[in-house]
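Q: Hi! New to this. If I give you a protein sequence and the SMILES for manganese (II) ion, can you show me the bound structure?
A: Yes, paste them in.
Q: Okay, here:
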Amino acid sequence: MKKAVEAIRISKSFLLTTHRNPDGDAIGSELALAMALWKMGKTATIKNLHAVPGNLMFLPYVNKIHQTCKVGECYDIAVLIDCENLERCGNIFSSENYKTALINIDHHISNQNGSDYDIVNSCSSSTAEMVYRIIKELDVEIDKEISTCLFTGIFADTGGFRYSNSTPAAFEIASELMNYNIDPLEISLNLYESKSFQSQKLLGLVLNNLEISNDNKISWLTLTKDFFKKTGTSPSDAEGFINFAREIKSVEVALMFREIGESKVKVSFRSKGSINVAEIAKNFGGGGHKNAAGCVMDGSMKEVQDMVIGSIKIPVSEN
Ligand SMILES: [Mn+2]
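A: Thanks. Here is the predicted structure of the protein with manganese (II) ion bound:
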């Protein structure tokens, strides 16, 4: 991190990008770092493959984020944020788009490293927590806008401080960020209570088809393209639905299967306890965290479900 910070200090222009379907941690971390770089008098441009989801449009300077499938310009440094590899950001840039270094700031256990400066810590609650440390190291003064973005990142990735990554450090940093007059209620309402009526109707359809394994430990949701058509919604409206499977008391692994093509299915994984779903997702070409992961698989819905559910082995508990 010290070396990366040194490289940042002596560079002028930065490209910042993050993963497909960006979430609160991805966008919050990008914006916070960009604002810190601007404060240092540097040029920082944020370019992502996908648009910012509606529930994050309240963030400061969110209109500065560009959407592109290919970066044209060349910068001194490219920064990959909350993203385990170039594929996850949609390969929107390559080594031709930066002169001196690629910096990788991430907390995914499956991060593939290999950049010039890998700042990767899978024990960190969020990438926002890591960006907070970098900003401190850069000696940039945190303000209300930066604080709002960092808090949003930590709050989003810890599920509002409910998940196992709600570490003492996450609480401590959040507490410090509160000193900058931010509005956690506004952040919470935007993140978790800004759904559309159609999105709730979609949830109704999906919950109607909720399933559970014989031992009650695996529960899964199925989303077909048909559901989106019926309710006039898009996949971003299904964000967080998997939690309804996860919230069942006996469930240890929750899954969401979403049809994305003729015979392509996106699988999301969540676990509550010791089951490492990143390992399971990795077997199918995906990745993520111990308690939250994903992959994309070829095959019909039925084939993919049988393959994935059949591969999950949950040990019988001793008590
Ligand atoms: Mn994250």
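A: Residues 2-192 form a domain with the inorganic pyrophosphatase (n-terminal core) fold (CATH 3.90.1640.10). Let me know if you'd like me to explain how to read the tokens.
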